[in-house]
Amino acid sequence: MRSGPTGDWKRWPMTTEPGLDGFRFVLFALDAPTDYFVEASGVRSAPFHLDVADIPYVKRVDLEYRFPAYTGLPPQAVADTGDVAALRGTEVVVHVTPTMKVTGGRLQVEGEDPRPMTVADDGTLVATFPIQKDGFYRVAFPGRDGRMAAGSPDYTIDVLADQPPTVTFLKPGRDAKVTSIEEVFTEMRAEDDYGVGRAELVYSVNGGPEKSVVLHQGHGRKSVSAGHTFFLEELSLEPGDFISYFGRAADESAAHQTTTTDIYFMEVRPFAKEYKQAEERGARGAPGGDSGGALSYQQRQIIAATFKIVRDRRAADKQAAEDLATLALVQGRLHDQVQTLVQRMANRGVVEPGSGFAKTADSLRAAQVEMASARGQLQAKKAKEALTPEQGALKHLQRAEAAFREVQVSFGSEGEGGGNSAMNAEELADLFELELDKLKNQYETVQRGQQQQADDQVDAALERLRELAQRQEQEAERMRRQSGGPPNMGGGGGGSQRQLAEQTEELARRLERLAREKSNPAMQETARRLQDAANAMRRSSTGGQGTGEADAKAALDRLRDARKRLENERTGRLDRDVQQALRTAEEMRQAQEKIAGEAEQEMGARAGGAGGNAENGRLERLLERKDTLGSQVGELESQLDRMARDARATNKDAARRLQEAADGIRDRKLKDKIRYSKGVLKAGAAEQARQLEAEIGSDIGNLQKKLGEAAGAASASGEDKRMAALERMRGLVRSLESVEQRLRERGADSGRQNGREQGQQSGSQSGRAAAEGREGSSDGSAQSASGFSGGRPGPAPRADEARQLQRELRERAREAEALGRELGEGRLGERGAAAGLSSTLRDMRRFEDPRVYGEPRGLAQLVASVVQGLKSAEFAMRREVEGPDREKLFLSGTQDLPPGWQALVEEYYRSLSRKPAAGSPSSK
């Protein structure tokens, strides 16, 4: 055979293959016309000719993304790529430049019918397809025989995740205890990557029908902050009643993805005097210091857990079924404990008609009925149906606790009926508190175990995130080095970035689950940042000229930000744990004071010849209290050892003081003293008992002192406090910007309505054009200084709207004043920011004037002026906190290339190829 008409003839042996007749020879890499013949045993065949012809192939692919309308994003051009990464529903326009002129082509998307490609005047081919799912696509061209043949490699289609909105309550952000005449301000913030379409607050009184308050609806905004005030005096509530509420937000996507917060509670308590007197009885109750509140606290936890299962729509999930079974057991156990308390009250004979204990017993019996119904619904796997009786049980439990507080107050005066009845009632109250303490301690033990497990998961996630950030940094550096080479002339690639994206998404899902389980908004925001990083990695994997490197850098920035947030989460853990240890020590001190008092009564009764109180069970309950206190001391000792070990790497001073506190418990033999004092009480050794109780109280006091020193060492540094103040300032600006936007949209809506009315009355083209012009400015890009479209003020708000708005703006003014005091005192070192804030505070004080809310134009101007003043103060504060280097401009992310830029780059590389290399003969 020979290659080309003037080439030399070459001989090649032909081979046989088992199972096949004849001889074979394979010709590889034909790039020129070839002649050949076959010769065997001196016999030669006729010559044959192989002609080589070029077939069309993809030389270059340019993409144009046309995003879904709800995103508000303009079309984006990505040059010289092929792989696709965009939101579901995005229209992708594919521009193909072939290696030679063709008459047509087809675009083949995996799983779909081929799409014909249109040939443009410049010889490029164009086709469009929507992104629906992950997969591949390729281009086919007609061959010389007219049949379609592959003209490109397989290009990847990656569907980027449109994340659901996030929604959190900034205020109160937790369960609260209120009086029936308070004004309770709640603030909700919703955020979405493309726009929040609707945000609402949903509440219910005593588990009754749900009511919805729409806080935002209309033009999508990436961040929405709005407040709502509950005017409790208008709801006719009484002690023991409650309001449950939660927030809900939906985005503007076709799926209207919805996110719901956890459920929160406002419990109505008695007025301060009676409530304080009840607390002074010494009972500790549930977390938060409420006297005798462990029953309702446990019931609230059951409601919250059931609500999460309903919210997450996991009814068919195996894990949900297990969770419901566990909740049914917990609800049944609480039912049985309440039943035991009711029985003991009846046995003591204190449930006299009209007495405080009678009210308590009646409410507990009503709670039993509701709890039995809730347990049945949970056992039947009907989570949503269980919520109603669960909340009914909570109402009755809280009313029982409110009645019990009245009994505690009455002990401070004349008792319940006097004589033996009062004695029995006080003994029963003591028993009641002891039972609730047991329930609370059991719950706290489980809660600590769950918290430790969550902390371990955060640590594992942080290590994984550090690894991903390191690998992404290497990828970004590799892409930076390659950016100096010629433009990408092929498709595909980016496999390492897609692999990193998948691993980052998996970590984001783990953190998101943990955030929802632990109701941690900060961790949920970290999960969102990780998903943003994964999306940027997928965009980077497409390898678009001028965009891949920027997307890789953007992904790295988001990973670093997420890592910093997790590190802050772990740093704040020490302060959280020390504060919890301090609260535990305070509870131990209160418990020891109560034990010492009861021990003195026991010794006094024996000295008086009464024979003690063993017959009525007081000594047994006193010994039980000592057992509980001893268990608390042992658990706290173990916690302090663990906290000291964990803190050694980050805060050696706090770790040393925590270890000293733990060693103090061991050195002073605190657990042994508590255990030994039980025998002394039984033996009736009064003087030795007094001495032991005094030593135990002194040891707990020393423990509190050591923990206080550890808390000071673990508290946030000055820099952390300044950063926290800056974050508060940013939050204040965002909140008022949201108010300004709402006023603007209200004015724009009024402008559109006026325009439509004018158009209907005149019927003229000019009137219609004016209306369209006003409508087109509703996005806020062409608003007047007053915040209203076309300078037109909207209608004055209704009385209820004005009251809500005034309460919200008053809250913003209080926040600004508190921040101004901190800055003005110089504790944070931002005196320049304080000076800039002072003039704005004067404007904010005008929010107190009711007349402002009757003049929409003036209100809008006032809010706009305040926002600008706060932004200036924020800028000054940022310069003082973050330093002047932060003023530099850093650009990252996907950018459209200027027209003609690509052609200039290609001409530059062509000119380099024409220049002789340095040192070559032609260059001399």
Could you characterize the architecture of this molecule?
It is a single chain. The chain is α+β, with helices and mostly antiparallel strands and 924 residues long. Helices cover 55% and strands 15% of the residues. The chain has 19 helices and 22 strands. Strands 6, 7, 8, 9, 10, 11, 12, 13, 14 and 15 form a 10-stranded mixed sheet that branches. Strands 16, 17, 18, 19, 20, 21 and 22 form a 7-stranded mixed sheet that branches. The longest helix has 64 residues, at 419-482. The chain is elongated, with a radius of gyration of 37 Å. It starts with a strand and ends in a 10-residue tail after the last helix. The model is unreliable at 275-292, 413-425, 485-493, 762-791, 885-897 and 917-924 (pLDDT under 50).
Biggest sheet, in brief? 10 strands, mixed
Task: Give the fraction of residues assigned to helices.
Answer: 40-55%
Strand proportion = 15-25%
Mean pLDDT: 80
Separate helix tally:
19
Radius of gyration computed on alpha carbons: 37 Å
Tally of DSSP β-strands = 22
Describe this structure in a few short sentences.
By secondary structure, the chain is of the alpha+beta class. It is 55% helix and 15% strand.
